[in-house]
Amino acid sequence: MATPIRFIMIGGFLGAGKTTTISRLAQMYLDRGQKVGIVTNDQATDLVDTHTLREQGFNVGEVPGACFCCNFNELTATADRISAVERPDVMLTEPVGSCTDLVATVIRPLQNLFGGQFDVAPYGVIVKPSHGQRILSGGENAGFSPKAEYIFRKQIEEADFILLNRIDELPASEVDDLARLVESRFPDRPLLRISARSGDGFDKLIEFLDQSGTFGRRVIEMDYDLYAEGEAELGWLNSSLTVSADKPFELDSLLVKIVERMGKRLERLGAETAHLKTIGMADGGHGVANLVSSFTPVELSLPSDCRTKHANVIVNARVAIDPADLEREVHSVVTEAAREIGGTAEFRQTQSFRPGRPVPTHRVAQLTN
To answer: What does each C-alpha distance from 106 to 70, 198, 224 come to in angstroms?
Structure first.
């Protein structure tokens, strides 16, 4: 019988740094001689994260159209498809950033139904500093709405351990303050401080993930009405397009301009951003720009250092705004940015909507083996 695949799921709110964390973990596992598969997840197709990881050379499957919990059978089928090409030693999975109750709807079903196929690692949830400090300190209107904050808190509540990411972006005193706040709210959880961008803390993270035992211990109480309403407050957009110009343009500059202007436009509309990100792919290179909140700067997280006349671009936006308004603003900003470089933007596909009510395939409160 084949050795079970080590199943690692990294959760956390939109913009917490899950993709960058998974990318670094994947490379570390490869460096120590292990085969790696990755499964991403989104409410729609054209996910920036999937393209980013594939452009980095990883073996990536995508579960689109619903969260892992509501599309559990597609999660296991995608894992099977990856394994059919080359059976991995480690399967890294990234759930939708607005999803919670994953212990009962993903981890426990895997343990009960696929215990011989998967060996489940401790479940880690990343705390997003830009919202963590505000939400966990109980500030008024700290993050989107009380209903969206409910999801944020529930994500942390079900974790086996908590990851405090982006520590390199904050003064040490603020990191200490946030760590104390997390530990006071969730005193029985191990807390690891990491920087997915620099790699700080990742040796300890790998060591923690290598632990053996029965994980997914915390099945949380969930108000699915409140959960559904919290998700539905976010407008969701995935858009794919091409930008073409007669003369070469700086791809990275275009990506930053799109995200920066989009953030400012949404701020003027009073629409809080959960995550804006765009990837540009051209001439064998790729670049990614991000905005993880309405009160943090735009980041060129992956520079392409590329000049080109033609680029394939994907824009993902998760914003507290009506989806029709979000689509209109994205199209306007991208068109203007392309025009300024003497080019045009041709939209191939845009999906904009509010996430529907979560209906899990399974919900397992108790282990049966």
So the answer is: 9, 30, 16
- Collect all residues with Cβ–Cβ distance below 8 Å to 223 and sequence separation of at least 6: 150
CA distance 159 to 228: 20
- Residue 140 pLDDT: 65
pLDDT number for residue 32: 96
What's the rounded Cα separation, in Å, for the pair 44 and 41?
Answer: 9
Q: What is the pLDDT of residue 151?
A: 95
In the structure encoding, which two tokens stand for residue 353, read together?
Answer: 């909507």
Task: For residues 100 and 11, give the distance between their C-alpha atoms in angstroms, rounded to a whole number.
Answer: 8
Burial profile 34-57: b = 16 or more Cβ within 10 angstroms, e = fewer: ebbbbbbbbbbebbbbbbbbbbee
Per-residue model confidence (pLDDT) at position 368: 58
The pLDDT score that the predictor gives to residue 152 is 94
Q: Name the stretches of the chain with pLDDT < 70.
A: 1, 139-144, 367-369
8 Å CB contact between 50 and 60: yes
pLDDT of residue 235: 96
Asked if residue 228 lies in contact with residue 256, where contact means CB atoms within 8 angstroms, the answer is no
> CA distances (Å), 64 to each of 5, 71, 86, 197, 355, in order?
22, 9, 22, 26, 12
Contact 326, 317 (CB under 8 A): yes
Integer-rounded Cα Rg, in Å, for the chain is: 20
pLDDT at 92: 98
Q: Two tokens at 30?
A: 């490869």
SS3 state at 75 = helix
Tell me the DSSP string of 295-343. TS--EEEE----EEEEEEEEEEEEESS-HHHHHHHHHHHHHHHHHHTTE
Residue 130, pLDDT score? 82
Crossing angle (nearest 10°) for helices 146-157 and 129-136: 100
The predicted structure's pLDDT at residue 142 = 60
Write down the pLDDT at residue 109: 96
DSSP state of 51: H
